[in-house]
Write a structure and sequence with these properties.
By secondary structure, this protein is mainly β. 0% of the residues lie in helices and 26% in strands. The protein is built from no helices and 10 strands. The protein has a two-stranded antiparallel ribbon with strand order 1-2. Strands 3-4 form a two-stranded antiparallel ribbon. The two termini are 34 Å apart.
Length: 174
């Protein structure tokens, strides 16, 4: 780790050139706070979770509670979710609830199955998000520590979505 010379900031802009494949940290003195309007997630936005392995999206099963993967249908409300932050911080360990737009219910760990439940602030209904900053996420259940995944790495229509230990498989990436 080597500290380089100071870089000047002019007109509220930083311009710097760094070496390819370097790990660079900028320490900016005299700046504090976070622009809440510039968050990467927004409680107002709706999202479709597209599985990296299958290309299919999270959807509600025929029983109205289970979660499966299905082909993306553009205006299908039951395939839309909001990610609502529960904690107040700005760290990598913030906690979220994932709300289905159609039902208003939240994704929950139900003994290894992902189901929709009415929200009652239980740890099985809370999630942490993990990303490399590339627009791909894994969803980690706070209670179990397991990730949302498509069982058996299935690419089939209607395949069950559950929870399992992290495996780095594309079936756990959304």
């Amino acid at each position: 780790l080597v500290q380089k010379s100071d870089v000047m900031i002019a007109d509220k802009e930083l311009s710097a050139v760094v070496q390819p494949q370097s790990i660079t940290t900028f320490v900016v003195s005299g700046v504090s706070g976070v622009n809440k309007d510039n968050s990467f997630l927004n409680n107002i936005e709706t999202y479709k979770f597209i599985n990296k392995n299958s290309g299919k999206v999270l959807d509600i099963g025929q029983d109205g509670k289970s979660i499966v993967q299905k082909t993306n249908i553009r205006d299908e409300e039951k395939q839309n979710f909001s990610i609502q932050k529960i904690t107040d911080g700005n760290s990598t360990k913030e906690i979220y609830k994932i709300v289905n737009i159609d039902s208003g219910s939240v994704l929950s760990d139900n003994n290894g199955s992902v189901t929709l439940q009415d929200y009652d602030n239980k740890s099985n209904q809370k999630w942490m998000l993990s990303t490399y900053g590339n627009g791909e996420y894994t969803f980690i259940n706070v209670q179990s520590g397991n990730l949302i995944e498509v069982g058996g790495e299935s690419k089939e229509e209607g395949a069950k979505v559950g929870l399992w230990k992290p495996t780095t498989g594309n079936h756990q990436i959304w």
